[in-house]
Amino acid sequence: MLGGMFTLFFLNVCKLPLPLAIILAVAAATAAGILFERLTIRPLKSPTPLSLIIITIGGSILIRGIAMLVWGKDTHALPSFSGSEPLMIGSATILPQNIWIFGLTAIAIIGNKLFFQYSITGKAMRACAANRRAAGLVGIDVRRMVMFSFAISATLGSLAGIIVAPLTMTSYDVGIMLGLKGFCAAIIGGLSGGVGTVLGGLLLGILESLGAGLVSSGYKDAIAFVILLLILIIRPQGLFGRAQTERV
Amino acid sequence: MKRFLQTTTIALLLLVWASICGASAGTIKIGALFSVSGPPSFLGEPERNTAKMVVDEINALGGIKGRKLELVVYDTQGDATKAVQAANRLIKEDKVVAIIGPSTTGETMAVIPVAEKERVPLISCAAGSKITDPVKKWVFKTAQNDGLAVAKIYEYLNRKKINRIAILTVSDGFGSSGREQLKANAARYGIQIVVDDTYGPKDTDMTAQLTKIRGSQAQAVICWGTNPGPAVIAKNVKQLGIKLPLFMSHGVSSKKFIELAGDAADGIILPSGRVIVADVLPAKDKQKKSLIAFVKDYQKHYRAEGDHFGGHAWDAVMLLKGAIERGGDSPAAIRDQLERTVNFAGIGGIFTYSVADHAGLSKDAFVLVEVKNKDWALVK
């Protein structure tokens, strides 16, 4: 949401060209993510997962409210990155924007994978996720890693918001459903790895579209959440996740 | 000291009492329920703005027979419970003589029993046909019935000899009402609905439904929804290379739709009230004078284009004004006079209420418009 709205702001109010507006919007959203972490997560004395979740949900409501007051309640359209004439491939058609989405998503996924697998910071972040205290003991600045993780998720989130905005349009309240569906995809894929989540998302999208086309379009969202429930009941570790064994 | 306090309190109370009496003598209180915030704020905000603007104008010109109007507005936030509470407050505490609004059909249906019980005329700004069908003694409405918009499209299809259609409606109150009307009227115009699909109000991709329509026998697509869904559909239709004529509902007859759909909006035909085409209407059009006045005033006061929703409030205030001018300001007299309104050329159409009809409009309240070069053009 912030990504799309910031892009619009830089594009329309500051009259900047689209690529520059996008870069600035991603930067602004990242800054907002860092600021959010600084102001709400870091001052917390004893962070428990529950309080953290509640704080982030509360924060998201606050940010939505501010965005509504600043930019109004209207839906806005973002121009496509490179024209809106559909490309014909046989009898199928695809919009240039879809190719942009594919490309940028692939780059983001690969970049993420490389970052977490090979860079020192990425490894340090994984260590924090696995065991916060141990990571702190071996000299990793846990608080900085937490900030990094907020920055990364804000960057990726805003980027995603911007690249889909030309197709889906943007307003102050987009993203809630995307967030829920993203959670769905993560659960389906198993929370353990990035690639599983991407595959889970793809699977979810295909099932949804097939369901909408073949069964009834009214149940499109229901399909996603029924799948989520089924997975949680039958295979809680996700389709591609390995079952965790509790070592005693 | 104690005595002094007592006398001051009494004096103050007397002052307050006097000022209340002073304010209420002479003014006519009109209540208004609009969803100024909340999801239907796109209805409530222009409605409130317009109602205030019109009441101010009436007062500036000396009021009704020398008596000023006072508008009491409560925000219902699109919530039926809040609407009922506010309606009770308007009637019992503010002692209004009539109520304008609410903005949505759901809220209106919830407020109707209150108005009927308390015998206060209610002029709803919502579109649902069930508001005045069956007729309720104290309830009127200014927004056009969905059925009239459907009739307008079906007439056009008959002229173009199209008889197999696909409908794609949004799964909210507006869409399901439209869907009912589309299905109920189809047989009368000899039209067959070959695909009947829906989409969610927040959906961002309708290619699945449209792919199904592309593979069907349909000769035209009718989409029923409010922004932003129809804009997505317009884009998806272009993306899939569907060449069928695309019709929309009056739910998107604002410049916002053209802005959102961009080039994909070109060639789309929809029924619409006359506001958006006020300046290109022929001079003999009876509504033209009201329309131009409304659009100009709204532009002057709020630096935005007046829309249909504001128009519903404009009609409601002006209908009330007419009724009060003719019969005085008691709720019962207002109701009787509203029912006798004949040929009032407002924004939504030309109103003629009767004992059997509290909606007051015919299908001529709509014109068909086509999007051409990012603007509206009348379809002949």
- Main-sheet strand order of chain A equals 1-2
| The top level CATH class name of the largest domain in chain B | Alpha Beta
The helicity of chain A comes to: over 70%
Overall, the morphology of chain B is elongated
Task: List the keywords.
A: mainly alpha, 2 domains, B: 380 residues, alpha/beta, Rossmann fold, 4-stranded parallel β-sheet, 12 helices, 14 strands, elongated
Describe it:
The complex is a heterodimer of chains A (248) and B (380). A two-stranded antiparallel sheet of chain A has the order 1-2. With 248 residues, chain A is mainly α. Chain A is built from ten helices and two strands, in the order H-H-H-E-E-H-H-H-H-H-H-H. Chain A folds into two domains: 2-171, no CATH class; 175-248. Chain B is α/β, with parallel strands linked by helices and 380 residues long. Chain B folds into two domains: 26-144 and 290-362, 3-Layer(aba) Sandwich (Rossmann fold), CATH 3.40.50; 147-272, Rossmann fold. Helix content of chain B is 44%, strand content 17%. In chain B, helix 2 (41-60) runs parallel beside helix 11, helix 3 runs parallel beside helix 4 (105-118) and helix 11 (308-327) packs across helix 12 (331-339). The longest helix of chain B has 23 residues, at 2-24. The model of chain B is unreliable at 20-24 (pLDDT under 50). At the A-B interface, helix 7 and helix 9 of A face strand 7, helix 7, helix 8 and helix 9 of B.
Please give a quick description of this structure.
The complex is a heterodimer of chains A (248) and B (380). Chain A has helices at 2-13, 18-41, 49-71, 96-118, 120-130, 132-137, 142-168, 176-189, 194-215, 220-234; strands spanning 87-89, 92-94.
